[in-house]
Design goal:
mainly alpha, Multidrug-efflux Transporter Regulator, Chain: A, Domain 2, 60% helix, 3% strand, elongated
Length: 154
């Protein structure tokens, strides 16, 4: 099939197919009178590349994936990418929490806001149920005294 037909069947522009060919993500097809003639399996190869791109794989990772194809290769690359995505999820959750706090912020300026954040982050976390259960019956956790400022007020 011609590159135009492959483009129609995959939904990828011809320029993208040529780019993937240059990047060795798909094998170069044989040429007949200077025209590329793609086999039917090129559709499946491009589907794998597209899926990998949509999943967040880099071109370098996709190249390793398709050129060193094997069951273990898929597994190792998938595990590494999954760990990367989970780390990104954690960062995004943290960013969302910060942005939510900023949207709810009533502080008059950045310094006040910074002090409030500092106080909140230095507070001890609530004890989990398992920690409370380990305490002797009838005892409670001691409350922490508020810290006193050693500097005079300004």
């Amino acid at each position: 099939m011609t590159i135009g037909e492959l483009s129609r069947r995959t939904g990828l522009p011809s320029s993208t197919i040529r780019y993937y060919e240059r990047e060795r993500l798909v094998p170069s097809p044989p040429r007949v009178a200077t025209r590329r003639v793609f086999e039917d399996d090129a559709v499946a190869q491009l589907a794998v590349v597209r899926l990998a791109r949509e999943a967040g794989f880099t071109l370098s990772e996709i190249r390793r994936l398709v050129n060193d194809f094997g069951r273990d290769r898929w597994r190792r690359l998938a595990e590494a990418k999954l760990a990367e995505i989970r780390a990104s999820e954690a960062r995004l959750r943290s960013m969302a929490a910060l942005l939510t706090k900023l949207l709810d912020c009533k502080c008059p300026d950045l310094q006040v806001c910074g002090r409030m954040i500092g106080r909140a982050s230095s507070r001890p976390r609530k004890a989990s149920a398992t920690v409370r259960e380990r305490r002797a019956p009838g005892t409670t956790a001691r409350r922490r005294r508020p810290e006193r400022s050693t500097t005079g007020s300004s």
